[in-house]
Design a protein that fits this description.
The complex is a heterodimer of chains A (313) and B (519). With 313 residues, chain A is of the alpha+beta class. Chain A has 2 domains: 89 residues; 177 residues, no CATH class. Chain A is built from 6 helices and 13 strands. The longest helix of chain A is centred in the N-terminal third of the chain and has 25 residues. Chain B has 519 residues and is of the alpha+beta class. In chain B, strands 1-32-31-30 form a 4-stranded antiparallel sheet, with no helix packed on it. In chain B, strands 2-3-4-5 form a 4-stranded antiparallel sheet, with no helix packed on it. A 4-stranded antiparallel sheet of chain B has the order 6-7-8-9, with no helix packed on it. In chain B, a hairpin with a 3-residue loop joins β11 and β12. In chain B, α1 runs antiparallel to α2 and α3 runs antiparallel to α4. The longest helix of chain B is centred in the last third of the chain and has 24 residues. Chain B is elongated, with a radius of gyration of 40 Å. The two termini of chain B are 35 Å apart. Classes of the chains: A alpha+beta (313), B alpha+beta (519). At the A-B interface, β1, α2, α3, α4 and β2 of A face β1, α2, β33, α3 and α4 of B.
Chain lengths: 313, 519
């Protein structure tokens, strides 16, 4: 009987591990965490088309992702059923053992079924997708709002980069402090748009997220004297909006506006730089908020137009 | 290949693999559900058994159970009742027909008036010889030489003395200087000889006149047995060494036919017909640390079939065909009181434990039934060993294989039905020349922007290169779109032949991987 305890414990541990894995895999996407950052679907969209085509394409893309996910969702319970089937098959060997026979045929078959269940669960997981970032919808709304201001048959050019703000490829620079701790500065230009407008102006908009994170480092504990690793620490982020309007001199002249000058708050943004020399309006605004809704970007663009005065025809 | 087909191709390969393996297990005969058990027919106390044999010693046509300890020998009937028994001092015994009445006699080599030999025939004791010129009893054997039967005695100093059936000394010899550990009759070209081995590793084959056919030596040995393993009329001598050497010699000339180190002292060697094929004989060896090995001899050399283990020193090995399949199973006892049955493929099945170490195991018919008799240090137990198996169980791998195959195919079907996940890099591109030109301008502006940021120190290192690589890639896509639509375009990008990254035309070194560009 003692000889049985060890294999039985091993089988039980493996069973529980496989069951837990399959149960977690069978679950629908985990909801947004109560604290911390939620992860979104990493998407990169290259934009060079008419607004309607872009919006249609964006909707179609979301539909395709959802279709793949729901096709996978439909079968999520199958790996669990196969696991339980495998358990049942294995139990036959247990039953035989109780009758004094030794067999590993059904245990082997059950193990193969478990492997199949794990492979299936992993494959189904590939169809999973995360939620789309709110920026995806915001960008679509911005494109929708600006569609009538575009030069007839004109296109939007640029990109929407939702692959993540703190990727290695987005490290702008690194600094070290006196204690040799590295801080990384990220620059994520998540939205870049250029469009020739109906009034002859050329509009360029860039939305940039700047983030700062201290890298993990080793520190000797003052109490125990042991080396301990301190985890990476997020030190905050800010949003930046760069707007550049090359003004059509035949239609507008640039004037100063009391509602739009350096230091003014426009929605969530504060204008930090404003330059109107050479017939081009160059504005840089920043915001301490981590997320900026589309109405703030559109509101900022509308406010920037207060610097333009239409010439008399 | 279509992604709808790939899961089925993979599934097909897996199903074939599963079914081939299932077929191998099913038709290879390695899968069975069988169990061995035993019921005790009778038992009786007996201390210190040293030799035990099931044989007809009374001439009534019914087997009896002979058992012997250093001080006592007893013959029991089929029900365990004593028929006769005698007490001796420091005796060694053997069984053989000495008086030619076709009933096996008990030959007792013991210390009485000096070294003496008694013959017990059908319970009648006869003093055959006394005051023999040989030392302390170690081994005795009745050898049926072609010139007639002789009683060969071996003592604890390597002295050998052969007596005729009348008790008269025939010949004597000296082999080594240590205790005689093995004495067996052996055939050479159909003639009978005696093979003798001593603990110090001396080994020799003698003829009926005491002439050594050959002599040899090896490491100290614990066991020696002689069998004609290939049925060619010339036997083979098997030795088990103190330091693990398992050797098979030709009885004709002492040439070594097989040698293997088993890593522990070899405490027992027996022949067991494990595969049921009489053209090849199987040998089972047991070790001092509990190791069990089975070898087969094909006529010229041996090879190991399987190995297993007991929990302590193997003290006895016996062969019995329990499941009536024509193949013997090896019944093995150890010093810890465990008795196990090893089948032809080496799987171990335990029989009930004994309270003291196993001394002897023998198999034979008592009355009308075949029994496994186990003698431990305090008791003899006669067991009826039974066997049961589930009919058709060997085909269960095929059934299990089919179930697994069906599941694999269902999984393949489900996975094939799931649409491909879209690429997470999408491009919405108008293909009019105005739009492509606008995109091209935008990309160049963006590249210029990145360069400006780098100069300003706002973007450095990897981020700069990653952004540049992406923009240049988009520029290359834009050029491709131009060409695809048949518009004229001045190509301004090239691809790095090493990393595939897009570079501006005219660059002589890849910014991403450092490759020198010669074109």
């Amino acid at each position: 009987m003692e000889a049985l305890i060890c294999p039985a414990v091993i089988i039980m541990v493996i069973s529980i591990t496989v069951f837990s894995y399959l149960r977690n895999t069978a679950r629908k996407k985990t909801p947004a965490p109560a604290a911390g950052k939620k992860e979104f679907q990493p998407v990169y969209i290259s934009i060079a088309d008419k607004p309607e085509s872009i919006m249609r394409g964006m909707d179609r893309f979301v539909a395709e992702v959802n279709r793949t996910e729901s096709a996978g969702d439909k079968w999520r319970w199958v790996p669990m059923i196969i696991f339980l089937g495998g358990l049942g098959v294995m139990a036959i060997d247990g039953l035989l053992f109780l009758f004094g026979y030794r067999s590993l045929v059904f245990v082997s078959g059950g193990a193969l079924l478990w492997i199949s269940a794990i492979v299936m669960a992993r494959s189904l997981r590939k169809s999973d997708s995360k939620d789309f970032s709110p920026r995806y919808k915001s960008t679509k709304t911005i494109l929708y709002t600006l569609r009538d201001d575009l030069k007839p048959s004109g296109t939007f050019n640029g990109h929407l980069d939702l692959t993540g703000a703190m990727l290695k490829s987005k490290i702008a620079r690194e600094t070290k402090d006196r204690r040799d701790r590295t801080t990384q500065y990220f620059r994520d230009e998540w939205l870049s748009l250029k469009a020739k407008l109906y009034d002859g102006n050329v509009l360029r908009v860039s939305a940039i997220q700047r983030s700062k994170q201290r890298q993990p480092y080793w520190k000797r504990s003052q109490i125990s004297g042991k080396m301990k690793q301190k985890p990476a620490k997020f030190k905050g982020s800010e949003q930046q909006l760069k707007v550049r309007i090359a003004v059509n001199p035949a239609a507008y002249q640039i004037v100063s506006s009391p509602q739009f000058r350096q230091g003014m708050n426009i929605g969530k943004y504060t204008i930090s730089q404003l330059n109107t020399e050479g017939g081009i309006i160059d504005v840089v605004a920043s915001s301490p908020f981590e997320e900026i809704e589309h109405e703030h970007i559109l509101g900022f663009l509308r406010s920037a137009y207060s610097l333009l005065q239409r010439k008399a025809v | 290949m279509s992604r709808k087909i790939i899961p089925f191709v993979v599934a097909g390969i897996l199903v074939c693999l599963v079914m081939v393996v299932a077929g191998i297990f099913s038709f290879g005969g390695s899968v069975s559900a069988q169990k061995f058990g035993s019921d005790v027919a009778w038992s009786r106390p007996y201390t210190g058994a040293e030799s035990m044999k099931i044989l007809d010693l009374t001439g009534d046509g019914q087997n009896d159970l002979f058992i012997q300890s250093p001080e006592n020998l007893t013959v029991l009937d089929e029900t365990g009742e004593p028929i006769f028994g005698f007490g001796y001092q420091s005796m060694k015994t053997t069984l053989g027909d000495v008086n030619g009445d076709n009933v096996e006699d008990i030959v007792v080599f013991h210390i009485d008036a000096g070294a003496s030999v008694d013959v017990i025939s059908k319970g009648q004791r006869t003093k055959l010889a006394t005051s023999l010129t040989i030392g302390f009893p170690s081994r005795v054997a009745v050898i049926r030489f072609s010139s007639g039967p002789q009683i060969v005695l071996g003592d604890s100093s390597g002295n050998i003395l052969s007596l005729g059936t009348d008790g008269a000394p025939r010949w004597d010899a000296k082999l080594g200087s240590d205790e005689v550990r093995g004495m067996d009759d052996v055939k050479i070209d159909g003639q009978t000889f005696v093979a003798i081995a001593t603990y110090d590793g001396s080994l020799a084959v003698f003829d009926g006149q005491g002439k050594a056919i050959w002599r040899g030596s090896q490491e100290q040995l614990r066991r020696m047995r002689a069998f004609d393993m290939n049925g060619d009329g010339t036997g083979e001598i098997i030795t088990g060494g103190e330091f693990g050497a398992f050797k098979i010699y030709s009885a004709a000339d002492g040439s070594l036919l097989f040698e293997k180190s088993l890593g522990q002292a070899i405490s027992e060697v027996r022949e067991v017909e494990l595969n049921g094929d009489p053209s090849s004989r199987e040998i089972v060896a047991g070790g001092k640390e509990g190791g069990v090995w089975a070898f087969t001899f094909d006529g010229t050399t041996a090879s190991q079939i399987w190995s297993g283990s007991m929990s302590d020193k193997v003290t006895e090995i016996a062969g019995i065909d329990i499941d009536d399949d024509g193949k013997e199973e090896a019944v093995i006892g150890d010093d810890n009181g465990k008795v196990a049955i090893f089948t032809g493929n080496g799987s171990r099945n335990n029989l009930p434990d004994r309270t003291s170490g196993i001394a002897r195991v023998d198999v034979g018919k008592l009355g009308t039934e075949r029994y496994v008799v186990v003698a431990d240090m305090s008791e003899i137990q006669v067991n009826k060993v039974n066997f049961s198996s589930i009919p058709g169980f060997q085909y269960t791998p095929l059934i299990v294989g089919l179930i697994v195959s069906v599941v694999i195919l269902v999984i393949a079907g489900i996975l094939a039905s799931i649409p491909k996940k879209p690429e997470m890099k999408v491009s919405f591109q108008d293909t009019s020349i105005e739009s492509l030109n606008a995109q091209r301008r935008m990309l160049k502006e963006s590249i210029a922007d990145v360069e400006r940021l780098r100069k300003a120190g706002e973007v450095t290192g990897d981020a700069y290169l990653a952004r540049l690589k992406r923009l240049r890639g988009d520029l290359a896509d834009n050029e491709s779109a131009f060409k695809k639509q048949g518009y004229n375009i001045k190509i301004e990008t090239i691809q790095c032949p090493n990393c595939g990254g897009t570079l501006e035309l005219g660059m002589d070194k890849c910014e991403y991987c450092g490759q020198v560009l010669l074109s």
